């Protein structure tokens, strides 16, 4: 999220100057929709800058008395408690006046702290060193609070950039006497200690996370006002009272239950009251839910678990008949089926053992065919050479079909012999049996025939 999408280490790489749309660079971002507004009078422009600390978990306003203009995303050094602190500019210009009005902060407040300078490399290095102490401080502070047997939970520790002050955020159900705790913290961490109590929802906003909707938590991205949420909001919206589903990561009811509550309350005004039960011939029908989108009221009968949808007019009519002592025969059920084709869900298929490696089989088959073709081409290239060698032997008066075995009978030598070759070979003094294995040509060496009949046994005397 945030700067990682830009491919750079600084927020300025995404060209939004520290205000990525995803909120990864800085939490609780505010869109500056007055950024391109031309300034008519420079003197009357807003001299206050909104600065965020600890990745947006804390924001404050500082007066810019220097002549140096600051842009969104710049790191600056501001006044702190007996020292200085380093923060990031989150808003500048006319939009800051609207934010101050929202938080009831006056622009001419004399107690407003000032901007000292742009943060130097030394200031940034000192801030990183002190910020690295925060995780250890949280673990140690929790152990000390447990030793003193205090009913409280240390949620977060925020160190000032110069390391002279530390703010301990804690959660407690009631009042806690932490006078002794402050003395132990001051001697342990060698800083000025400030204790600040927060609620469970504020802790979830500081920690952050992903909600059940799949998006970033509202309390850590944009929500600042935490209104009370009760189970009546779930009942109006026909939600089942399930504590695990209606609770957020803070353990309280989800803040989003109030988002659509006004819309449901306006829509429920058109539904009749005192219609939780109506009488029919089959028994008393009880109201299950109200559908504000289709203006239907769903009832159930005691003899079955089936739900019957009724229109608002039908319910009013039956209720009026019940008041007169008339009990209708049955409910005027509405057909809620639609002509929209129902999507068929794919059935579960067990593909274990049915996976076929056809691609590999095809590749092997193709490779074998190529090797076969290469062999056939090589054999076709050798046959003409063998034929030429046989012709040369015939011209020289040699019989390529003669066997190289000396004991083989002449009458059983393969191939046809032309008459007249044998005298020529004897005149030249050549042995055709010796040259038969040296000259080219196909020779068929057939073994002599053997008689498989058993030998004659001598007569027994």
Features:
461 residues; alpha+beta; GMP Synthetase, Chain A, domain 3; four-stranded antiparallel beta sheet; 13 helices
Describe this structure in words.
By secondary structure, the chain is of the alpha+beta class. Among the domains are: 2-119, no CATH class; 129-205, K homology (KH) domain (GMP Synthetase, Chain A, domain 3), CATH 3.30.300.20; 227-270, no CATH class; 271-323. It contains 13 helices and 12 strands. The protein has helices at residues 95-102, 121-131, 134-147, 179-189, 200-207, 218-221, 231-236, 243-246, 261-267, 312-323, 358-395, 421-428, 432-435, and strands spanning 48-53, 58-63, 75-80, 83-91, 115-118, 153-159, 165-171, 192-197, 277-280, 283-291, 296-300, 307-311. The strands form 3 sheets. The protein has a 5-stranded antiparallel β-sheet. Strands 9-10-11-12 form a 4-stranded antiparallel β-sheet, covered by helices on one side. It has a 3-stranded mixed β-sheet with strand order 6-7-8, with helices on both faces. A hairpin with a 5-residue loop joins strand 6 and strand 7.
Order of helices and strands: EEEEHEHHEEHEHHHHHEEEEHHHH
Q: Output the strand order for the largest sheet.
A: 2-1-4-3-5
Radius of gyration: 49 Å
Helix content: 25-40%
Counted by DSSP, the helix tally is 13
For the biggest sheet, the summary is: 5 strands, antiparallel
Assembly category:
single chain
Number of strands: 12
What's the overall geometry? flat
Mean pLDDT: 78
State the secondary-structure class.
Answer: alpha+beta
* pLDDT < 50 stretches: 1-8, 10-15, 398-444
Give the DSSP E fraction (strand runs of 2 or more residues).
15-25%
Task: State the distance separating the first and last CA atoms.
Answer: 114 Å
